[in-house]
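Reading group handout, session on sequence-to-structure problems. Before we discuss, look at one worked example. The prompt was deliberately terse, the way you'd type it at a terminal:

> structure HlyD family efflux transporter periplasmic adaptor subunit

The input record follows.
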Amino acid sequence: MNPQPPQPAPPAVGALLTLVQLERRAREAANAEALGFVMVNETLSLVPYRQAVYWSNAGLGHVAAVSGLPQTDPNAPYLQWLAPLCRALQKQHSTPAPLDATSAPGDLGEDWADWLPAQALWLPLTDRAGQIEGGLLFARDTPFSEHEQAVLLELTHAYGHALAAFRPGASPLQKLKRALRPGKLQKRILIGLAVACLVPVRLTVLAPAEVAPREPFLVRAPLDGVIERIFVAPSQPVAAGAPLFSLDTTTLQSRRAVAQRAYDTALEEYRQSAQLAVTEDDGRLKMAQSRGELDQRALELEYTAEQLDRVQVKAERAGVAVFGDVTDWQGKAVAIGEKVMLLADPAKVELLAQMPVAEQIRLKVGDTITLYPNASPTESYAARIVSVAYAAAETDEGVLAYRVRAQFLDGEHPRLGLRGTARLPGGWVPFVYYALRRPFTLARQWLGW
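And the output record:
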């Protein structure tokens, strides 16, 4: 049997194969310029036309490719006329639209016959999200049939998908604009954000805090001198009458020796004047003077002895010694009345918080604050505010802050000297004020509102 010659493919099958081939060519395009060449030139194998124009939406919009031209010149009269036409078509038509001179936007139809055939078809190019990437304009002398429009619509869908692959990544501003584009989801999100901004929240401030003694006994230096020895360690319990520290006695011992010699001399002079007073009248007057001198020297000696007795400071009541390191005080010169340490009762403690001036909020006596110790992240202690300082003072870290004193609630007895962070409560404010309070404050400082 002789082999049968191959039968020609039906026209519908041939058109389908051409469509598939064009879609593949679009996917294999190396860049946007190559894809534009395929769209305006090779589409002719599927649908006949005389002219084709590819309008790109990149930047301000421009004619990116024209059929029959290897490259476009934006200053050419033809492109000068096409640019406003394509820009107007993109704004007016989001779906395929047949055109002629009478339906051209604006007054562009007056010069239609000079640049394009009688009939044209505008096809927008969109990506998967529906965003317009540009458009294709096909023109010829006869109108485009419905079948041809349907085929071109399917083809431009593939062109738009391929074109989106060459689009640069959207900037954060473009992403925000796209997210805020009117729609049901965006409206719901905006309404939810507006409601969230108005939700009342408690205005709070975090401030450094420590557990301080309440009603402590202040131990001061009794004399001007140098601390010779510290008998207790920091945080050591001491009993009433126990020695705390002592001052150097070298200077006082010298003063006492001088006072003792002066007293002995005055006593000897008094004895001599007393003997003369028995036989001479002048001796009686001299005896009275010697008696006064002796009394003065005796007082000086007694005062020096009392000072020697006071060089060792003892605890007047039981408590815990609160002060810095021992080496910080040994050998340090102190003045009379200078604070050396505190005697505190471990059962009587309070919370001392330092609210920075930059974070100042309105606090009320009786409000409850919470201490979060640094050493115990799982524990917290509640305290009630008893006083807020009127004026700010400089802390040890060099920060101006208001002192806030609070008394721990019943059953709360944290360790003396415990440090942490205190959460200070203020009034109720909208969430938007809570979130933007610090930025607004900085803006006012910089702009001088």
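Points for discussion. First: Residues 250-279 form the longest helix (30 residues). Second: Residues 202 and 238 are 44 Å apart (CA to CA).
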